[in-house]
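dumping this here before i forget
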Amino acid sequence: MSTATITVSQRSSGLRDAVASEWTKLWTVRSSWLNLVAGVALTGLLAMQFGFSTAYENEHLAPGEVAEKSAVGGVAVSATVIAQVIVAAFAMLMVTSEYSTGSIRSTLQWTPVRRNVVLAKAIVLAPVLFAYALGLGVIAAIVGGVTMGEWADWDLAALVVDLLSVAIYLTLAGLLTAGIAFVIKSTAGTLTAAFLLLIVIPMMLAQSNITPLVWTAALLPGGAGQNYLSGSTDPLSPTTSLLVLLTWASSGLWAGLKALQHRDAA
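structure:
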């Protein structure tokens, strides 16, 4: 007499299992690695441009002007501010790729507690984004410093501050983008929203001489990030700007969680 064997697939609602699953998914898709390559390439090219431009300007001064060294950390800030869309895309794809392929259904079957889905992605993304951004900052500082040559200021203390600021900002910007991705679901829509909030709208409003518009720019994630990275106290201090960024990141993830909890997976 033969015995039938029935295999029962168990679902996991545990956060630890969800985190392990998200970590595996992140590094087994080609888009993650392509994004890393693109981020490194773009940051290196931008840093090279900034470095050569700085050296050229210092060597071709107008009469009466005095050449000054430039902090290599400043190159890291300038390059990564432009490359931040690449980092935001890295975070976004962790969510939108599942909606585009339909694998979000499998994710929710495996982790039926939807809060854990959002938390797991955020827990995995936070250290990865921090390391990613820190790596880009180091690349930009080294490439920019080498191409600036004698005009590079390698002050270690200032460089560490700049690199940590870049890493913190891009981590929070990436978490915000991941939250937006849960709300919008599409890659194009999420990337457009992130581009507008992080670069376009703050940049446009900050150019205005109208005080309410300048304050609005400073309260947007991109504007707060610029204030935080530059150390500017106008109109917000770096500490206040960091609090604004934390608020945006947590609010974005909260909005993403609510969107996930109140609709079907499709």
